[in-house]
Design brief:
mainly alpha
Length: about 190
């Protein structure tokens, strides 16, 4: 059976870096779920289609929120505080732009497999797209985790980090006409 993202958590991170780290784990999870949907011959057509639907939803809805967190809330507050951090921020921003074409390829491949889960050609294309994105994302996430995350802890006062967490939560909050939302493990 293909693994799904659990809605149950052992513990909730209370700090900004912990929340961002959870987002990174979800990115890794959903890229791997796409790979497994392509590669697992023992999964039923329904499981493969559902996995594709879940991955599509994540990359269409949640990943853009995470990118906005980085570009709108974190980058402006870190910019100018350290030349090495500025260089990392520039690299991360360029990588965000580079991800667009690989994400589009992945989404197209997911849609094809969701519609035709038994199509070996479509699954092969999905495996290639997921593997390419996994490689690209891993370098990106590693740079953030080794340079940006420590900079957040070292350079941003706790009050600033708290304001950023509030911004992250507001991005994920449904419109007022719907139920109140929280920063959730399914949303970035």
């Amino acid at each position: 059976m293909l693994t799904q993202l659990s809605t149950r958590r052992e513990s909730k991170p209370q700090d900004l870096v912990g929340l961002l780290g959870e987002c990174h784990q979800r990115i890794r999870h959903f890229v791997e779920l796409a790979r497994q949907a392509a590669l697992r011959g023992d999964a039923s057509a329904d499981q493969v289609a559902q996995a594709c639907t879940d991955v599509e939803r994540y990359f269409k809805e949640a990943l853009p929120l995470h990118v906005a967190d980085e570009e709108e809330s974190i980058e402006p507050r870190l910019r100018g505080q350290s030349p090495p951090v500025d260089h990392a921020l520039d690299t991360v921003a360029a990588q965000h732009e580079q991800h667009a074409s690989k994400l589009a390829t992945l989404l197209a491949a997911l849609a094809a497999v969701r519609i035709r889960p038994a199509d070996d050609v479509a699954r092969s294309e999905l495996a290639a797209a997921a593997t390419a994105l996994k490689t690209e994302f891993e370098a990106h996430l590693r740079l953030e985790e080794t340079t940006i995350f420590p900079a957040i802890r070292e350079l941003l006062p706790s009050e600033t980090q708290t304001r950023i967490i509030d911004e992250l939560r507001r991005r994920r909050r449904p419109e007022p006409a719907t139920a109140a939302g929280n920063f959730s493990e399914n949303q970035s």
